[in-house]
Predict the structure of 4546_t:CDS:1.
Amino acid sequence: MDYINSIIHQENKNGTNLGVWPLTSSVDWCESNYAISPYIAEFWNSISSIAMILIGEIGSRLNSCERTPLYIAFRLISLVGVGSFLFHATLTYYMQALDEVPMVWCALTLLRPLFEINYGRQGPWLTAMLTSVAITLSLLVTIVRGGAQFVAFQISFSFLEAFTIYLMTRIYNRMKSNHPAIKTLFRRGLTTYLFAILIWLTDLQFCEYLNGGERSLLPFNPQLHAAWHALASFGLYLLVVFTVYAWWAWKGENVKLEMGLSGLLPFVVKIHQNDQDQSANSKLVKTE
């Protein structure tokens, strides 16, 4: 437990300054506290959280996923971004919960369509099980305090991440031949997300060598946790879009990938029957 506390609370390593918020969270990241503003504990970690808000809002609007669990997943990503901003801005216990609880909800929301794509339509038992897990983990995050809370959350969420990636990999291996559009989505999304996790671990484990302090190998802090926010947001976006595509393909719908925001972000569009008829007629006119 001494080792856990040494990597979790790093206020003595960060050059912590005084600010308006009391430090009550179970973790204090590598960025120096209140270095830029007395009102924002971790400035760059807070600002980079906006990436999650944008990704969630853009994803829910660009992709054809209305009235599906995937629309809810995109909106929960936005909520994670809001919670992350408030958590890093204050480093308080309740704002930490506002960051971590939506992360659990988002992962469990994704699991339902992924489970059904893999194993077929399920009965009410799946909803009941996922709801029970959501309640249990939410209570765990909000009731347990200190280093035990940090470890319990990371173990629980890591299991959800691993199971989600496992289900996505099964779908990818089954669909990649008939749906080549998903290849780039899955490979790039998974690679980006795993690289983001590596950056997160590096920032957590080697803070004293990367924070610009006396023992640091660098004369500045590269703000790796902020980089984790940006990269994880992009990787997660691609993986959710992959799931949207697989969801509609599994349901027998015709879908296609298009590029939005000047070619920066792919999104899924359902092809309606009228669109197919118009496309067929245009081809017929050209051949005549």
